[in-house]
Amino acid sequence: MKEKTEKGVDLSLRQFIKNLGFITGGSALLASTPWLTSCTPEKLQEISKEKARIAIIGTGSRGQYHIHNLKEIPHAEIVAVCDNYAPNLTAALDLCPGAKGYTDYRKLLESKEIDGVIIATPLNWHAPILLDALAAGKHVFCEKAMARTLEECKTIYNTYQQSDRVLYFCMQRMYDEKYVKAMQMIHSGLIGDLVGMRCHWFRNNDWRRPVPSPELERKINWRLYKESSGGLMTELASHQLEVCNWAAQRMPVSIVGMGDIVYWKDGREVYDSVNVTYRYSNGNKIAYESLIANKFNGMEEQILGNKGTVDLTKGLYYLEDDHTAAGIEQLLGQVKDKVFSAIPAAGPSWRPETKGDSTPHYIIDGQMNVSNGLSMVGFEKDGSDVILSAFCQSCITGEKAKDVVEEAYCSSVLCLLGNQAMEEGRCITFPDEYKIPYMKF
């Protein structure tokens, strides 16, 4: 049974983090994930009688997803919501009847009754709203990617270095128990030397939303246009590139790629099919692929070592020399016992005929939540609730989450450089002007 607070916030990751201190080398493991050091049940108990007063700017599908999570966090109170699209604002106010509604985020930022803001707007609005919020003295939680342009990313990073405010980006895999545990396994040598990484994210959905009036096309379908979106790279790859760097413990030095509009020829400007390769200085590579006109392969993030493979998305690992029970036998037992909250039927992990004698092993014991990658909003217990809880805690204590901004910066810049490599049709060497001291190459 998972541990709960009185309002239902899942404490399983917090307890897991606490327990790291009792594992051999626990202090070293926590040092490798310093953003988790404040995420313990004891730290949460210290602020149990306090509440962070939170405002949400951007109340579309993702903003409403955050509202549902916030309502389960006992140390959070939603005091304001903001959107310049009336149906979204109305929906948010229905969910938060005690909150004040705004149509102009600048007016919201003037309020002294707000401690922190959550930004869930189109990508091109991340930088201006975030910078204005920091200037107004608010703590900030922003959706990924960091910003629409490389210059905006660097400006945000530089501004944060001079700020005493808390800044989070929704890099929820950094707070997902199976990812944290998997990285410990990888870095401890379970799969031997790292030799490569393969990530893909496939959907069959045009990304298009209904538009009640033609003048609202670019407001509602902002993901389809370059002025407001980085397409598949910023919307999807930002998460997957971050975990690859986490595993590699360094940044790529060069990027090549190809992008095309293969199927959805409906006036959109962003690619519906991308293939990008990121090369590290030691020769390791990330092979990244995404398209949205076929969902068969679902979503995978594979870290490849000379002794095994970790499939981060599904919480599994495989060893090269392993002769335990056949994978399909384990799957049938897991389905029967309802181990998975979502069976990863879209992926290839359960095809023993193509994976030889490889047998899946669990990264964590007991029930875990996995995703096939098809949802455009999010899925239950993917780490989003924990990172949001950590942000609200930081709004009360003022304690910054170490490395979250830096990791968001690194992955966001890689996404934007991937787009640049595709658009310009050339190999891009990581530009010196966008390097930060945190990066290792």
Which helices and strands appear, and what pairs or packs with what?
Layout: H1 12-20, H2 26-32, H3 41-46, E1 52-57, H4 61-70, E2 76-82, H5 86-95, E3 100-102, H6 105-109, E4 116-119, H7 126-135, E5 139-142, H8 150-161, E6 167-169, H9 177-187, E7 194-202, H10 217-220, H11 231-248, E8 254-260, E9 273-279, E10 285-291, E11 299-305, E12 308-311, E13 316-319, H12 327-337, E14 361-362, H13 384-397, H14 404-424, E15 428-429
Parallel strand pairs: 1-2, 1-4, 2-3, 4-5, 5-6, 7-10
Antiparallel strand pairs: 7-11, 8-9, 8-15, 9-10, 11-12, 12-13, 13-14
Radius of gyration: 21 Å
Overall pLDDT metric: 87
Count the helices. How many? 14
Ranges with pLDDT <50 over ≥5 residues?
A: 1-10, 335-354
Helix content: 25-40%
> Biggest β-sheet: count, sense, barrel?
9 strands, mixed
What fraction strand? 15-25%
Task: Spell the H/E element sequence.
Answer: HHHEHEHEHEHEHEHEHHEEEEEEHEHHE
What strand line-up does the widest sheet have? 14-13-12-11-7-10-9-8-15
Q: State the separation between the terminal residues, measured CA to CA.
A: 43 Å
SS class: alpha/beta
Number of strands: 15
The shape is globular
Commentary on this structure:
The protein has 441 residues and is α/β, with parallel strands linked by helices. It is built from 14 helices and 15 strands. The protein has helices at residues 12-20, 26-32, 41-46, 61-70, 86-95, 105-109, 126-135, 150-161, 177-187, 217-220, 231-248, 327-337, 384-397, 404-424; strands spanning 52-57, 76-82, 100-102, 116-119, 139-142, 167-169, 194-202, 254-260, 273-279, 285-291, 299-305, 308-311, 316-319, 361-362, 428-429. Strand 4 (116-119), helix 7 (126-135) and strand 5 (139-142) form a beta-alpha-beta unit. It is globular, with a radius of gyration of 21 Å.
